[in-house]
Amino acid sequence: MTPLKKYYSNAKFLITGEYLVLHGALSLAIPLRFGQLMEIYESDTTLLDWIALDRAQPWLQFSISEKDILIAENKGTSEKDFVCFILNQAKKLNPDFLPNLSLKVKTEINFDRNWGLGSSSSLINNIAQWADVNPYELHELVSNGSGYDIACANYCLPILFRRNESHPMIYPIRFEPDFSDQLFFVYLGNKQNSEESVKKYLNGNPVTKTQVESISLLSKKLLQSENSMEFDALISEHERFIAEVLHIDPVKTKKFPDFEGSIKSLGAWGGDFILVRSDLGKREVYRYFYEKGLTTIFAWDDIILS
């Protein structure tokens, strides 16, 4: 069956400015080769039938009634609740959206949803496209994040991002380090709940204008780094800075003190992915982390959308 409509949104990595991006820090974010597809089909039922696939395997299936959408005034406790809440808020932004529910929606992510690459943000962006509404407005209504992930969902180049409610400042850029063959992304195997991480951070960490400006400057410097030595120094400085803000030790200090190279946390600290830069060579980098039990590793060029 041919879909009536089809939408796609990219996954993402936030390279600089984690947490402080919420306060308007200029941050470097990069769209990935991974993403989420959403297809809309005709249906002969009176309900909106929803099926979600994870790398071609169904992991979620439910039906949605008009009442389900009407009463969904918060995120609820289940995936169905969250989908209904997004649809509810999308209809508030565009009352002409979903005049009837005789449809089937199929979503599919082509990455492990435990990796924290943006399964929620890519869904929000796809629904915003479907509803013909501003994706940043919809995101503000259903999420407490900065919106950088929505920007990555729509761009095919790295971006510098600054939060500004429903109209963020986004600057598409070229970021192609000469030493990209020395850059790797390693999954730590402990998915972080972005919403909870943001909530906890906002409740416990007052941020100064000077801190925001410092991270913004680091983001710019990282883009201008001319060699791996300068890149390493900036990565280490960024880690120390965020560690002081969060009162948490950097991941290299805690878990990989003997690693020959630089390591930076990405996104919510404590899990998800890390960015690694090393002179060791691909085989030795992989061997080091494999011996630590970490086997999900991507080379820069294998995952970055370009």
Automatic annotation (TrEMBL):
The keyword Lipid metabolism does not apply. It comes from Marinifilum flexuosum. It comes from the Bacteria. This is Mevalonate kinase. GO terms for molecular function: kinase activity. The lineage of its organism: Bacteria, Pseudomonadati, Bacteroidota, Bacteroidia, Marinilabiliales. Keywords: Kinase, Transferase. The keyword Calcium does not apply.
